[in-house]
Amino acid sequence: MGDLDLIKRFKIDDGFFGRYERLVRENVLPYQEKALNDMIEGAEKSHCIENFRMAAQMLKEGRCDGEFYGMVFQDSDIAKWLEGAAYSLLMYPDAELEKRCDEVIELIGSAQHEDGYLNTYFTVKEPDKRWTNLCEAHELYCAGHMIEAAVAYAECTGKKRLLEIMCRMADHIYERFITEGAEGFSGHPEIELALMRLYRCTGDERYKGLALHFIDVRGADREYYVKEREKCCWTVWGNNPWDTEYNQCHAPVREQTKAVGHAVRAVYLYTGMADAALESGDGSLAAACRRLWDNITGCRMYVTGAIGSAYEGEAFTEDYHLPNDSAYGETCAAIGLIFFAGKMLRLEHDAKYADVMERALYNCVLAGMELDGTKFFYVNPLEALPGISGKARSHPHTLPVRPKWFTCACCPPNVARLLPSVGEYAWTLEENTVYSNLFIGGKLDLGDKLGGSIIMQSGLPYDGRVRYTFESSLGAMNMRLAVRMPDWSENTVINKNGAPAVYEVSGGYAYIEGPFSDSDAVDVEFDMTVKRVYANVDVSDDSNKVALQRGPLVYCAEGADNDGEVLSLSIASDGAVRVGEYAPDELCGVRKLYAEGFKTVKNNGLYSYIRPKKISCEITLIPYYAWANRGLNQMRVWLPEI
Amino acid sequence: MGDLDLIKRFKIDDGFFGRYERLVRENVLPYQEKALNDMIEGAEKSHCIENFRMAAQMLKEGRCDGEFYGMVFQDSDIAKWLEGAAYSLLMYPDAELEKRCDEVIELIGSAQHEDGYLNTYFTVKEPDKRWTNLCEAHELYCAGHMIEAAVAYAECTGKKRLLEIMCRMADHIYERFITEGAEGFSGHPEIELALMRLYRCTGDERYKGLALHFIDVRGADREYYVKEREKCCWTVWGNNPWDTEYNQCHAPVREQTKAVGHAVRAVYLYTGMADAALESGDGSLAAACRRLWDNITGCRMYVTGAIGSAYEGEAFTEDYHLPNDSAYGETCAAIGLIFFAGKMLRLEHDAKYADVMERALYNCVLAGMELDGTKFFYVNPLEALPGISGKARSHPHTLPVRPKWFTCACCPPNVARLLPSVGEYAWTLEENTVYSNLFIGGKLDLGDKLGGSIIMQSGLPYDGRVRYTFESSLGAMNMRLAVRMPDWSENTVINKNGAPAVYEVSGGYAYIEGPFSDSDAVDVEFDMTVKRVYANVDVSDDSNKVALQRGPLVYCAEGADNDGEVLSLSIASDGAVRVGEYAPDELCGVRKLYAEGFKTVKNNGLYSYIRPKKISCEITLIPYYAWANRGLNQMRVWLPEI
Question: What does pTM read for this prediction?
Answer without folding.
Answer: 0.96
